[in-house]
Amino acid sequence: MPYSTLDYDLSDGLARITFRRPERFNALDPLMARELCDAANRCSSDRAVRAVLLTGSGDQAFCAGGDVSVFAERLDTVELLVREMTTYLHAAVSRFARMRAPLVGAVNGVAAGAGFSLVTACDLVVAADSATFTSAYTRIGLAPDGSSTHFLSRLVGPRRAMELYLTNRVLSADEALEWGLVNRVVPAAALAGEAAELARQLAAGPTGAFGAVKALLQSAATESLETQMELESRAIAAAGASADGQEGVRAFVAKRPARFTGA
Fold this sequence. Notes:
Layout: E1 6-11, E2 14-19, H1 30-45, E3 51-56, E4 61-63, H2 68-73, H3 78-98, E5 103-107, E6 110-112, H4 114-121, E7 124-128, E8 132-134, H5 148-156, H6 158-167, E9 171-172, H7 173-179, E10 184-186, H8 191-203, H9 207-220, H10 225-241, H11 243-254
Parallel strand pairs: 2-3, 3-5, 4-6, 5-7, 6-8, 7-10
Antiparallel strand pairs: 1-2, 8-9
Helix pairs in contact: 1-3, 4-5, 5-6, 9-10
């Protein structure tokens, strides 16, 4: 289906989602929240999707969070508005987190508010050297949403997470790399190519095994050692029985590159 606020393209196993409101710094409005949820549903249900690349249009912003001008226009019903938007946003994040395919963020500019939260929800993140990162919620008297209270402290630790929320400190791309918020910083002109190459590499990989890694890292924070090891046992056994797992074993023994299909 065509979208009004984002672009969606699937080619050779790689789904590309691009926020398309550059005049509003790719900020989320109710329609974008709904469309992002729909795109996430497509990614999580389509077996042809083996990696997802999430980025923003233009060179100023990845996503500047919720469109505050929309909130200002609807202050009398803002509680209902925010509940509606977070319903779709949170469903999208949940689909991205639970799907097999890895989610790669290509941060091309400002990542603030919900955009900042989406960065924390990505599996891998490549940032332009011009990108900046800030929570921004409490600056306007709001609390965080979009999953960052789940992911952020895992990435940067509880003290740094608290600092980002309470002070709204703006991190440069290099600081975000040092803090563990992103995986790689590249020149802005090279971002699209570098992020796409990483996503294509993942799209050619063992998608089921990648999904198992994502699930195991999610459960690790809450399960006991013994339960986590049982989950690991089940996951590696299932992977070994899969077509990709068996191809990987055969390729290793034959000393040739594996040809994974996502099966």
